[in-house]
Amino acid sequence: MSIQIFGLPVSRGVAIGRAVLVASSRVDVPHVFIDSSLIDGEVARLYTARDVVADEFEALKRDLPADAPAELAALLDVHQMLLQDEALMGAAADWIRQRHYNAEWAVSAQLEVLARQFDEMEDPYIRERKADLEQVIERLLRSLSRGEPSAVPDANRTTRDFGGDEPLVLVANDIAPADMLSFKRSVFTGFVTDVGGKTSHTAIVARSMDIPAVVGARQASSLIRQDDCIIIDGDAGLVIVDPSPIVLEEYRFRQRQSELERSRLARLRHTPAVTLDGERVELLANIEMPEDGPGALESGAVGVGLFRSEFLFMGRSDNLPDEEEQYDAYRRAVEAMKGLPVVIRTVDVGADKPLEGMSASELRHESVLNPALGLRAIRWSLAEPSMFRRQLRALLRAAHHGPVKIMIPMLASQREIRQTLDNIAHARRQLADSGKPFGEVELGAMIEVPAAALTLPVFLRYFDFVSIGTNDLIQYTLAIDRADEAVAHLYDPWHPAVLQLMHSTIQQARAAGKGVSVCGEMAGDPTFTELLLAMGLRTFSMHPSQIASVKQRVLRADTRRLAPLVDAVLRSEEPEATCVELFSQGGSSHATQMRA
Ligand code: PEP
Ligand code: MG
User: Fold this and answer.
1) What does pTM read for this prediction?
2) Pairing of strands 8-11, 213-215
3) Together in a domain, 364 and 465
4) In this structure, which ligand is nearest to the CA of 502?
5) For an engineered disulfide with 25, which of 85, 173, 234, 494 has Cβ 3.0 to 4.6 Å away?
6) What is the CATH classification number for the domain harbouring 134?
7) Residues 258 and 201 grouped into a single domain
8) Average pLDDT per 10 consecutive residues for the chain, totaling 596 residues
9) What residues are in contact with ligand 1 under a 6 Å CB criterion?
10) Which residue, by CA, sits nearest to atom 8 of ligand 1?
């Protein structure tokens, strides 16, 4: 029977495909796609682990004390039987062969399938055997983790490599931003998670993949089964499981429509973003990895406005990237942009972007208590000066190869500004002493804490430019955890307090002759384009996939007509409604009414 699950829309469009459940809440295992040439090896890995566990069961049975209850031996027999059952092992091997899953993923995928079958059993005795199956699988996973690791992931796989054309849709309780990144160039055509807010970092990475996605869908990963046919409606935040043929047809139609719309918008790619009254607007790209550079150019971005460098630091269980590795990554990003400016933000870990094996023990402590208010972003950098200077040296060296701007996240006070600048000066001296070439950089501060917006003149004195991080500015102004779906309905970019902070930041920066941009999600949401233009914003940084839609709005806007309307929006108790009323058709309809 068809069911509907509601969540939060993250990324627009429609995806239709087979559900692939990962990172089940039951067992946490690595999810890796195996290269075709290594499939047999992976299946052998699975059976080797099975044999190890079978030997363990034999040994346990052999060593049972003579007075042990007979049920224990019987239980071990049941476990052995489950372990040898082809419904487990044969099916898991099929997941490896057909879907190229690593053995751990294959086993946990099959656990999901079998667990459901047990749940549906009438006989309570058989139903309870699910717990036995889980125990057997836990042993199997432990045995796999002790043995040889899986072969290297194949990041470039497409669905066709699986011997079928059916698209796959990722369904999970939660996906860490780093794992999301590893899925970035893989097969999935849509994704759904139980948890997460619209501007959680997982959602942001998903949006950068430009595929329909829904987060905060609560029970999705327990309601959806492995291989179910599902529709993701990324506009409505809706997931439909097992749709009827008529619903399926309707969504296929919408899918074709949105593809047509995309290709229509793509034609704007190389049109300069200039308003009707001749104001030039810079549309920049937000990227996570140097490899995103060509895609940014392709989308028509005229530079990178936010390179979230922390993704180089995440998802690695070993050491953090050293200076050379970072230098190489930043240089590649700069070269990929072919002379266009690249704003690289220093590492912003913590909160919903934890680092594995982080050196600062306080961070772990903070992460548990109140991660968003803890040792995050610049606070962590200042607490780890040698790590921070390593990154600064790498950035300054990359600036030798093209225009780099360094941007600092989450600054709140003058003290932090001074410490930051001292570290930059120190890194420069270190490079000068070592004789390594480095370049000049502009320095920018992110305005994402209300304290920074309220004391902006201090920031304007020390920095060349500021960039408003609306995702955090909203979170910290409204005291709403951006990653928590339980309060997602209160996370409101239209809140007058947020709009006032943004407006005054833009106005003050412009008056001081300093650069000002918005690089949070609001910049890429066309609903806000006219308002931001009216506030005086001329530099927007967003996911490359959003550039064409925002550009379309820019091309239809007239800033001479928009600017005088901004006060009415700021004074309004319902800014969203006021905006819709005043800004329709780039403000021209209102102006026409006023003239009439
Ligand atoms: C922001 O806070 O708006 C921002 C751009 O930074 P991040 O989303 O990475 O915290
Ligand atoms: Mg931020």
Assistant:
1) 0.80
2) antiparallel
3) yes
4) 1
5) 173
6) 1.10.274.10
7) yes
8) 90 91 62 85 95 92 81 86 92 92 90 84 80 88 80 49 69 78 75 87 81 90 90 94 96 92 89 97 96 95 97 79 97 98 95 64 52 91 96 98 98 98 98 97 98 98 98 97 89 97 98 98 96 98 95 96 95 94 66 37
9) 204, 306, 308, 348, 448, 469-472, 519-520
10) 471
